[in-house]
Amino acid sequence: MKDETKLVVAGRDPEANFGIVNVPVYHASTVLFPTVESREAAHAARAGGERLVSYGRLGTPTTWSLEDAVAQLEGGYRSQVYPSGMAACAGAILAFVKAGDHVLMTDSVYGPVRGFCDKFLKRFGVTVTYYDPLIGAGIKELIRPETRVVYVEAPGSLTFEMQDIPAIAEAAHGKGAKVIMDNTWASPLFFKPFEHGVDVSVQAGTKYIVGHSDVMIGLVTTTEECWGEFVRDANMLGQTAGPDDVYLAQRGIRTLAVRLKQHMENALHIAEWLKGRPEVHSVLHPGLPDDPGHALWKRDFLGASGLFSFRLKSVPKKAIAAFLDDLELFGMGSSWGGYESLILPSDPSHYRTATKWDDANPLIRIHVGLEAVTDLTDDLAAGFARMTAANR
Ligand SMILES: *Cc1c(COP(=O)(O)O)cnc(C)c1O
Asked: How far does the centroid of ligand 1 lie from the alpha carbon of residue 103, in Å?
């Protein structure tokens, strides 16, 4: 089955739901059993790995509909929902480390995951080494006997470096470490982590799976080999997500293919347009043929999403504010992956440790939404005019 078809059928079951197209919202904590025997049988079946409704926190048909759709699309064994993407990132790491272990973390990782490593993992005696996202097979030199996890994210948050994931996975597996990937940028549609050696894939479903900027949710998908160890910990940590949010995510994912194709097309158009602007120093988008990560992206990825960055030629802060403050179509705010365009200034030089990020050319991250691209370029062009006037 092709992905577009999987998106329509995976995780749905109209026959079990009176013909209703979407799996309904089951609000549940307590689940009643008619007899002592049936309750005991249910608990025994669950302990044996069978999936059945026994308590709200442990899953309902609503949660399974989303989990199954994501697992099938990503090509993993099974998925677990989390109340946010960040909870999913933390949960994925926590399931595979103990005191004394070591984690290798890409220097281009989503910022809050860096905070989790530096402040939270440290308290529990887990050490973290950041590595250059461009390291590829060279990661081998950094793997220690106690390295349990190599964490990758491609392209990198804010800076969009591509990573050679198969090469990193080969090195990690050769030394007994697991590969965890944050696959939010490509979504389950445009990168197939399990075909490239990843053991555990994280999705901030908040972004493209939900797609409408109104729900926090996360998912972790693993290989069959990793599932038992992983899900036991997820359950012990009490991880689940609210049924209404799960419902919105499983509704959102049905249109992922059409949305993502348009985000990709619009973003590539805007990226090319920005490249031609005199105010712009460079554009960081692996889908552009002259991007340093383009060959890897072309080899491993099936498409690009709507998120990328560009760097301005050196301008003072007040000129950047003049550019951004009065944009009409680009909103300024965290997150991305909804239908609307967003823009944010950012300075990765503050937190990089394994690599140096020079701050001479201010970085602007952009999420290109589903608006008409000519309206978006008009908005940006007016912003550039304000920027130039403010810099005079
Ligand atoms: C947004 C984001 C997350 C965290 O997701 P939340 O749902 O906001 O907690 C994790 N990784 C990446 C790459 C993200 O962009």
From this structure: 20
